[in-house]
Write a structure and sequence with these properties.
rod-shaped, transmembrane helix, mainly alpha, 252 residues
């Protein structure tokens, strides 16, 4: 019992050299960073669940101004709000400056709006992907960092055992077992990071596809004053009754 208590994390840290301690601190920092990113991104994904309702509320608004207010209230600082704001600003800019004999006045309105919305989507994509590279790096390198600590610990344990001249099983098992803990630490850091990276990547892919669909509808509405209706609705609705965001046709 006393022999078992003589080995453990405290004993490993006490007899470890500077290299082992640096490796352990690196794994600790990587673990803290990983869980911080997981917490921040997880809270962000929980908030993203309300974005669909915010988009529906936007299209149900009586005019563009009210629609933007609803997006700002229900999905503040979201990619959907940014996209709608950029599209509205680009449309207003084109409407106010196309009559002037300037380079901006000669630009094609649809192309100008498309570029503004594409810029918003690019910025939102970069924001969504922030932190994912760090998670991927931690998930891929942490096991090797832990393995390096294990190899280094086993090497020094065997050197010390060889110097003492007592190579019995009870003298070898303890130090080697302590060194193997570093590999376990590396896996403990890497596994949550890898799982979180895969989950967040999939969630971002779904959100970006929804953002792209929203951008398609917005572009159609800003350029023509009507959203593109599904085929079955177009067959049922009369040609003279396009789907419009009521009260905002003047902004197109």
């Amino acid at each position: 019992m006393e022999t078992t208590q003589a080995f453990g994390l405290a004993h490993l840290w006490g007899q470890a050299d500077m290299v082992i301690r640096i490796v352990a601190l690196m794994l600790l920092v990587m673990s803290i960073t990983s869980w911080y990113l997981i917490l921040v991104r997880g809270l962000r994904q929980l908030r993203a669940r309300s974005f669909d309702d915010a988009v529906e509320s936007f299209w149900a608004a009586p005019d563009l101004t009210e629609g933007l207010k609803r997006l700002s209230k229900r999905a503040p600082d979201s990619p959907f709000e940014s996209l709608a704001q950029q599209g509205a600003a680009a449309t207003d800019h084109v409407r106010r400056h196309t009559h002037r004999e300037t380079l901006g006045g000669k630009l094609n309105a649809e192309e100008f709006i498309t570029r503004a919305m594409r810029k918003s989507i690019s910025l939102s994509t970069a924001s969504l992907e922030s932190g994912l590279t760090m998670l991927a790096s931690i998930g891929s390198t942490a096991p090797f960092v832990g393995l390096f600590g294990t190899v280094w610990g086993i090497y020094h344990a065997l050197v010390n055992i060889s110097a003492s001249g007592m190579a019995t099983l009870d003298k070898v098992a303890g130090p080697v077992g302590e060194a193997l803990i570093m590999t376990a630490f590396g896996l403990f850091v890497a596994i949550p990071a890898v799982l979180a990276y895969n989950a967040f990547t999939r969630a971002n892919r779904v959100e970006l596809s929804e953002l792209d669909a929203f951008a398609h509808d917005l572009h159609s509405w800003f350029c023509t004053g009507a959203r593109i209706s599904p085929l079955n609705e177009r067959e049922e609705a009369p040609p003279s009754a396009p789907v419009r965001l009521a009260g905002a046709g003047g902004a197109a």
